[in-house]
Predict the 3D structure of the following.
Amino acid sequence: MRELERKYGKYAVKNLPLLLIICYAIGYTTSFLAPGLLSWLSLDPRAILHGQVWRIVTWVLIPPGSSNIFWILISLYFYYSLGTTLERTWGTFRFNVYIFSGFLFTILGSFLLIPLTRLIVPEIATMPASYAEAAFRSMSFSFSTYYVNMSIFLAFAATFPDVQVLLMLFIPVKVKWLGIIYAVILMLDLFRGPYYQKVAIAASLLNFVIFWLQSRGWQLDPKQAARRAAFRKATGGSTHMRGGMRSGQASGGPVLHRCAVCGRTPQDDPNLEFRYCSKCNGSYEYCQDHLFTHVHKT
Protein backbone atom coordinates (compact mmCIF):
# COMPACT_ATOMS: atom_id res chain seq x y z
CA MET A 1 0.00 0.00 0.00
CA ARG A 2 2.84 2.42 0.81
CA GLU A 3 4.37 1.82 -2.62
CA LEU A 4 1.04 2.60 -4.30
CA GLU A 5 0.66 5.70 -2.15
CA ARG A 6 4.09 6.97 -3.16
CA LYS A 7 3.22 6.53 -6.83
CA TYR A 8 -0.43 7.60 -6.91
CA GLY A 9 -1.01 9.47 -3.66
CA LYS A 10 -0.99 12.82 -5.44
CA TYR A 11 -4.17 11.80 -7.26
CA ALA A 12 -6.12 11.09 -4.06
CA VAL A 13 -9.33 13.08 -3.59
CA LYS A 14 -9.10 15.25 -0.50
CA ASN A 15 -12.12 15.83 1.74
CA LEU A 16 -13.87 12.80 0.24
CA PRO A 17 -16.33 12.54 3.19
CA LEU A 18 -17.56 16.06 2.43
CA LEU A 19 -18.06 15.19 -1.24
CA LEU A 20 -20.06 12.10 -0.25
CA ILE A 21 -22.27 14.16 2.04
CA ILE A 22 -22.86 16.68 -0.77
CA CYS A 23 -23.91 13.80 -3.04
CA TYR A 24 -26.32 12.54 -0.38
CA ALA A 25 -27.72 16.04 0.09
CA ILE A 26 -28.37 16.29 -3.64
CA GLY A 27 -30.03 12.87 -3.56
CA TYR A 28 -32.29 13.77 -0.62
CA THR A 29 -33.29 17.02 -2.32
CA THR A 30 -34.11 15.10 -5.50
CA SER A 31 -36.16 12.54 -3.56
CA PHE A 32 -38.28 15.36 -2.09
CA LEU A 33 -38.68 17.49 -5.21
CA ALA A 34 -38.65 14.89 -8.01
CA PRO A 35 -38.80 11.35 -6.59
CA GLY A 36 -39.47 9.83 -10.00
CA LEU A 37 -36.05 10.99 -11.15
CA LEU A 38 -34.29 8.55 -8.82
CA SER A 39 -35.30 5.62 -11.02
CA TRP A 40 -33.10 7.16 -13.74
CA LEU A 41 -30.11 7.34 -11.39
CA SER A 42 -30.00 3.83 -9.90
CA LEU A 43 -27.30 1.26 -10.62
CA ASP A 44 -29.27 -0.73 -13.20
CA PRO A 45 -26.84 -2.98 -15.11
CA ARG A 46 -29.30 -3.81 -17.88
CA ALA A 47 -29.97 -0.12 -18.53
CA ILE A 48 -26.23 0.63 -18.50
CA LEU A 49 -25.62 -2.01 -21.18
CA HIS A 50 -28.39 -0.37 -23.20
CA GLY A 51 -26.60 2.98 -23.25
CA GLN A 52 -27.53 4.67 -19.94
CA VAL A 53 -23.89 4.80 -18.84
CA TRP A 54 -24.43 7.73 -16.47
CA ARG A 55 -25.86 5.27 -13.94
CA ILE A 56 -22.33 4.03 -13.19
CA VAL A 57 -21.81 7.36 -11.37
CA THR A 58 -25.25 8.72 -10.51
CA TRP A 59 -26.21 5.84 -8.20
CA VAL A 60 -23.97 7.47 -5.60
CA LEU A 61 -26.52 10.31 -5.43
CA ILE A 62 -29.25 7.96 -4.19
CA PRO A 63 -29.31 8.49 -0.39
CA PRO A 64 -29.44 5.65 2.17
CA GLY A 65 -33.12 6.42 2.72
CA SER A 66 -35.20 8.37 5.24
CA SER A 67 -38.16 10.72 5.09
CA ASN A 68 -37.50 12.46 8.40
CA ILE A 69 -35.49 15.63 7.85
CA PHE A 70 -34.22 15.56 11.44
CA TRP A 71 -32.73 12.07 11.14
CA ILE A 72 -31.39 12.94 7.71
CA LEU A 73 -29.36 15.82 9.16
CA ILE A 74 -28.21 13.68 12.10
CA SER A 75 -27.12 10.83 9.83
CA LEU A 76 -25.31 13.18 7.43
CA TYR A 77 -23.37 14.73 10.28
CA PHE A 78 -22.68 11.31 11.82
CA TYR A 79 -21.24 9.77 8.66
CA TYR A 80 -19.30 12.93 7.91
CA SER A 81 -17.68 12.70 11.35
CA LEU A 82 -16.83 9.02 10.88
CA GLY A 83 -15.44 9.61 7.41
CA THR A 84 -13.26 12.57 8.35
CA THR A 85 -11.89 10.69 11.37
CA LEU A 86 -10.95 7.69 9.22
CA GLU A 87 -9.43 9.95 6.58
CA ARG A 88 -7.23 11.67 9.17
CA THR A 89 -6.30 8.33 10.72
CA TRP A 90 -5.54 6.32 7.60
CA GLY A 91 -4.49 9.16 5.35
CA THR A 92 -6.27 10.53 2.29
CA PHE A 93 -4.96 7.91 -0.13
CA ARG A 94 -5.87 4.87 1.97
CA PHE A 95 -9.33 6.24 2.72
CA ASN A 96 -9.81 6.84 -1.01
CA VAL A 97 -8.81 3.26 -1.76
CA TYR A 98 -11.27 1.96 0.83
CA ILE A 99 -14.24 4.00 -0.42
CA PHE A 100 -13.61 3.65 -4.15
CA SER A 101 -12.97 -0.08 -3.84
CA GLY A 102 -16.38 -0.30 -2.14
CA PHE A 103 -17.90 1.56 -5.09
CA LEU A 104 -16.09 -0.67 -7.58
CA PHE A 105 -17.18 -3.90 -5.89
CA THR A 106 -20.76 -2.61 -5.79
CA ILE A 107 -20.72 -1.86 -9.53
CA LEU A 108 -19.22 -5.26 -10.34
CA GLY A 109 -21.80 -6.92 -8.10
CA SER A 110 -24.63 -5.22 -9.95
CA PHE A 111 -23.42 -6.61 -13.28
CA LEU A 112 -23.27 -10.05 -11.68
CA LEU A 113 -27.07 -9.76 -11.38
CA ILE A 114 -27.54 -10.34 -15.10
CA PRO A 115 -26.15 -13.90 -15.32
CA LEU A 116 -27.46 -14.75 -11.83
CA THR A 117 -30.98 -13.68 -12.73
CA ARG A 118 -30.90 -15.69 -15.93
CA LEU A 119 -29.73 -18.69 -13.91
CA ILE A 120 -32.16 -18.34 -10.98
CA VAL A 121 -35.13 -16.96 -12.95
CA PRO A 122 -34.72 -18.55 -16.41
CA GLU A 123 -38.21 -17.51 -17.47
CA ILE A 124 -37.08 -13.87 -17.52
CA ALA A 125 -35.59 -14.57 -20.95
CA THR A 126 -39.08 -15.11 -22.37
CA MET A 127 -40.69 -12.14 -20.61
CA PRO A 128 -41.56 -8.99 -22.53
CA ALA A 129 -38.75 -6.44 -22.47
CA SER A 130 -40.82 -4.07 -20.33
CA TYR A 131 -41.18 -6.71 -17.56
CA ALA A 132 -37.48 -7.53 -17.57
CA GLU A 133 -36.65 -3.83 -17.48
CA ALA A 134 -38.96 -3.26 -14.50
CA ALA A 135 -37.50 -6.27 -12.67
CA PHE A 136 -33.90 -5.09 -13.03
CA ARG A 137 -34.91 -1.53 -12.19
CA SER A 138 -36.45 -2.74 -8.93
CA MET A 139 -33.44 -4.87 -8.03
CA SER A 140 -31.02 -2.04 -8.80
CA PHE A 141 -32.14 -0.06 -5.74
CA SER A 142 -30.57 -2.75 -3.54
CA PHE A 143 -27.20 -1.51 -4.81
CA SER A 144 -27.17 1.76 -2.95
CA THR A 145 -24.97 3.81 -0.68
CA TYR A 146 -26.60 2.25 2.39
CA TYR A 147 -24.17 -0.65 2.50
CA VAL A 148 -21.26 1.62 1.57
CA ASN A 149 -22.13 3.67 4.67
CA MET A 150 -22.24 0.46 6.67
CA SER A 151 -18.72 -0.33 5.50
CA ILE A 152 -17.59 3.10 6.76
CA PHE A 153 -19.23 2.50 10.13
CA LEU A 154 -17.80 -1.01 10.48
CA ALA A 155 -14.32 0.25 9.58
CA PHE A 156 -14.63 2.95 12.24
CA ALA A 157 -15.80 0.40 14.81
CA ALA A 158 -12.86 -1.87 13.98
CA THR A 159 -10.37 1.01 14.15
CA PHE A 160 -11.74 2.72 17.27
CA PRO A 161 -13.64 -0.03 19.15
CA ASP A 162 -13.62 1.77 22.52
CA VAL A 163 -14.93 5.13 21.32
CA GLN A 164 -18.31 5.97 22.85
CA VAL A 165 -21.23 7.29 20.82
CA LEU A 166 -24.66 8.40 21.96
CA LEU A 167 -27.29 5.91 20.89
CA MET A 168 -30.62 7.67 20.33
CA LEU A 169 -28.71 10.86 21.21
CA PHE A 170 -28.51 10.13 24.95
CA ILE A 171 -27.43 6.50 25.60
CA PRO A 172 -23.61 6.17 25.73
CA VAL A 173 -22.36 2.94 24.19
CA LYS A 174 -19.02 1.79 22.85
CA VAL A 175 -18.96 1.75 19.09
CA LYS A 176 -17.67 -1.85 18.98
CA TRP A 177 -20.98 -3.12 20.36
CA LEU A 178 -22.91 -1.19 17.73
CA GLY A 179 -20.56 -2.63 15.13
CA ILE A 180 -21.32 -6.15 16.33
CA ILE A 181 -25.06 -5.48 16.28
CA TYR A 182 -24.92 -4.05 12.76
CA ALA A 183 -22.78 -6.99 11.62
CA VAL A 184 -25.37 -9.44 12.98
CA ILE A 185 -28.19 -7.55 11.24
CA LEU A 186 -26.26 -7.58 7.96
CA MET A 187 -25.62 -11.31 8.29
CA LEU A 188 -29.33 -11.93 8.86
CA ASP A 189 -30.17 -9.84 5.79
CA LEU A 190 -27.52 -11.71 3.85
CA PHE A 191 -29.00 -15.13 4.61
CA ARG A 192 -32.71 -14.24 4.62
CA GLY A 193 -32.92 -11.71 1.79
CA PRO A 194 -33.54 -12.41 -1.90
CA TYR A 195 -30.58 -13.31 -4.07
CA TYR A 196 -30.08 -9.80 -5.44
CA GLN A 197 -29.90 -8.38 -1.93
CA LYS A 198 -27.34 -11.02 -1.00
CA VAL A 199 -25.20 -9.93 -3.95
CA ALA A 200 -25.59 -6.25 -3.02
CA ILE A 201 -24.54 -6.82 0.61
CA ALA A 202 -21.62 -9.08 -0.26
CA ALA A 203 -20.30 -6.76 -2.98
CA SER A 204 -20.72 -3.54 -0.99
CA LEU A 205 -18.99 -4.91 2.11
CA LEU A 206 -16.17 -6.76 0.37
CA ASN A 207 -13.85 -3.80 0.98
CA PHE A 208 -14.46 -4.10 4.74
CA VAL A 209 -13.84 -7.86 4.67
CA ILE A 210 -10.48 -7.25 2.98
CA PHE A 211 -9.67 -4.49 5.48
CA TRP A 212 -10.60 -6.70 8.45
CA LEU A 213 -8.58 -9.68 7.22
CA GLN A 214 -5.54 -7.48 6.73
CA SER A 215 -5.85 -5.77 10.10
CA ARG A 216 -6.12 -9.06 12.00
CA GLY A 217 -2.40 -9.60 11.71
CA TRP A 218 -1.57 -6.11 12.97
CA GLN A 219 -2.67 -6.66 16.54
CA LEU A 220 -0.47 -8.66 18.87
CA ASP A 221 -1.25 -10.04 22.25
CA PRO A 222 -0.42 -7.27 24.78
CA LYS A 223 1.86 -9.53 26.83
CA GLN A 224 3.70 -10.68 23.73
CA ALA A 225 4.19 -7.10 22.54
CA ALA A 226 5.39 -6.04 25.99
CA ARG A 227 7.89 -8.90 26.08
CA ARG A 228 9.21 -7.92 22.67
CA ALA A 229 9.57 -4.29 23.69
CA ALA A 230 11.34 -5.27 26.94
CA PHE A 231 13.71 -7.56 25.05
CA ARG A 232 14.61 -4.84 22.54
CA LYS A 233 15.21 -2.38 25.36
CA ALA A 234 17.47 -4.87 27.15
CA THR A 235 19.45 -5.79 24.02
CA GLY A 236 19.48 -2.28 22.59
CA GLY A 237 18.08 -3.31 19.21
CA SER A 238 16.17 -5.78 17.10
CA THR A 239 16.56 -9.56 17.12
CA HIS A 240 17.41 -9.52 13.41
CA MET A 241 20.98 -9.03 12.19
CA ARG A 242 21.98 -7.37 8.96
CA GLY A 243 25.59 -7.44 7.93
CA GLY A 244 26.81 -7.76 11.52
CA MET A 245 24.66 -4.85 12.70
CA ARG A 246 21.24 -5.05 14.35
CA SER A 247 18.38 -4.13 12.04
CA GLY A 248 17.33 -0.56 12.59
CA GLN A 249 20.51 0.40 14.48
CA ALA A 250 22.45 3.09 12.72
CA SER A 251 26.21 2.73 12.76
CA GLY A 252 27.74 5.06 15.30
CA GLY A 253 24.47 6.29 16.80
CA PRO A 254 21.34 5.24 18.69
CA VAL A 255 18.00 4.36 17.11
CA LEU A 256 15.66 7.32 17.50
CA HIS A 257 12.39 5.58 16.56
CA ARG A 258 11.24 1.97 16.82
CA CYS A 259 7.74 0.49 16.49
CA ALA A 260 6.75 -1.43 19.62
CA VAL A 261 4.81 -3.96 17.51
CA CYS A 262 6.88 -4.77 14.41
CA GLY A 263 10.25 -3.39 15.54
CA ARG A 264 10.85 -1.39 12.35
CA THR A 265 12.93 1.78 12.43
CA PRO A 266 13.64 4.61 9.95
CA GLN A 267 16.64 2.56 8.83
CA ASP A 268 14.27 -0.20 7.66
CA ASP A 269 12.14 2.28 5.72
CA PRO A 270 13.00 6.00 5.65
CA ASN A 271 9.40 6.82 4.66
CA LEU A 272 7.93 5.42 7.88
CA GLU A 273 6.34 7.84 10.33
CA PHE A 274 6.39 7.21 14.09
CA ARG A 275 4.14 8.47 16.88
CA TYR A 276 3.70 7.83 20.60
CA CYS A 277 0.34 6.51 21.78
CA SER A 278 -1.25 8.62 24.51
CA LYS A 279 -3.57 5.76 25.55
CA CYS A 280 -0.81 3.27 26.35
CA ASN A 281 0.53 3.07 29.89
CA GLY A 282 4.16 3.95 29.19
CA SER A 283 6.27 5.44 26.42
CA TYR A 284 5.36 3.18 23.52
CA GLU A 285 6.07 4.34 19.99
CA TYR A 286 4.43 2.91 16.88
CA CYS A 287 4.90 3.15 13.14
CA GLN A 288 2.14 4.46 10.90
CA ASP A 289 0.86 0.93 10.22
CA HIS A 290 0.36 0.09 13.90
CA LEU A 291 -0.41 3.42 15.57
CA PHE A 292 -4.19 2.95 15.31
CA THR A 293 -4.35 -0.84 15.19
CA HIS A 294 -2.25 -1.99 18.14
CA VAL A 295 -3.61 -3.27 21.46
CA HIS A 296 -3.17 -0.57 24.11
CA LYS A 297 -0.76 -1.36 26.95
CA THR A 298 -2.47 -0.99 30.34
